[in-house]
Specification:
It is built from 9 helices and 10 strands. It is of the alpha/beta class and about 250 residues long. The strands form 2 sheets. It has a 6-stranded mixed beta sheet with strand order 6-7-8-3-9-10, sandwiched between helices. Strands 2-1-4-5 form a 4-stranded antiparallel beta sheet, covered by helices on one side. Helix 3 crosses helix 4.
């Protein structure tokens, strides 16, 4: 469903050129939940932004649901849903208006009903007619998720999907992600919450300095990093033990 091959992205900074993504390759199957893990600045969000056509890569090839990202970016956008870390909601609109608007833009049949059902499912029904500017961070997160899912995309790309949510909200979102995968949708998510990743991800990729340092199921990643816990695997990649002097 997703194939990324030899992806590279460089940025010009005040200190000179910086490579954010460096020869990154991975693939995700239909119905699979794939987690991208890594420290701040590892290249996770840049990779996701490239996948959703917000940033152009310098090198590499990407296909999503059989569509070449370079040749047909609009075709890619029609098949994906993007949930960024920031809410980006129109302050004067209500959650109901936002989700119905996006449902209409996507040509969803029964847009109004679909929007209302999703808001209820995500625990935002009680706030559906309140201005988005008045919502808490967690509630905005629920509205963004409803907006993304309203057209039933083939692929979900989520950047810190539970950020700002309380415990019930986190559980609701994780269960919704599982439901999407069980329905055959492909999910790629970035998260700093290791316990969530352990519970939900089928496979994961540990990214450091823009490169894939370890990849596979939890058991495979533990074997590659010689660890037994995801926190330890993460640290083994981020801060590898220096070789003892001979």
């Amino acid at each position: 469903m997703i194939r990324v091959e030899h992806l590279r992205k460089r940025f010009q900074t005040s200190k000179g050129p910086m490579t954010a993504v460096d020869d990154l390759s991975f693939a995700v199957e239909p119905g699979e939940i794939y987690a991208l893990l890594g420290p701040n600045g590892a290249g996770k969000t840049t990779t996701l932004r490239i996948l959703v056509t917000l940033i152009e890569p310098d090198e590499g090839q990407i296909t999503i649901a059989g569509v070449d990202r370079r040749k047909d970016p609009l075709g890619v956008r029609q098949r994906i849903a993007w949930v960024p870390a920031e809410a980006g909601l129109p302050e004067r609109l209500t959650p109901r208006e936002v989700v119905r608007l996006f449902a209409g833009i996507q040509g969803v049949s029964g847009a109004n009903k679909k929007a209302d059902v999703l808001l209820e499912r995500l625990g935002a029904g009680g706030y559906a007619d309140q201005a988005c500017s008045e919502l808490s961070t967690g509630m905005k997160r629920r509205v963004v998720l409803a907006r993304a899912l309203v057209h039933e995309p083939q692929v979900l790309l989520l950047d810190e999907p539970t950020d700002g949510l309380d415990v019930p909200g986190r559980r609701d979102v994780l269960e919704l992600v599982r439901e999407q995968a069980r329905a055959g949708r492909t999910v790629v998510l970035s998260s700093h919450v290791m316990a969530e990743v352990e519970r939900i991800a089928d496979r994961l990729g540990l990214v450091h300095n823009g490169r894939l340092a370890a990849e596979g199921t939890l058991a495979e990643v533990f074997a590659q990093t010689n660890t037994t816990a995801l926190d330890d695997a993460f640290m083994a990649v981020v801060r590898p033990v220096e070789a003892a002097p001979s």
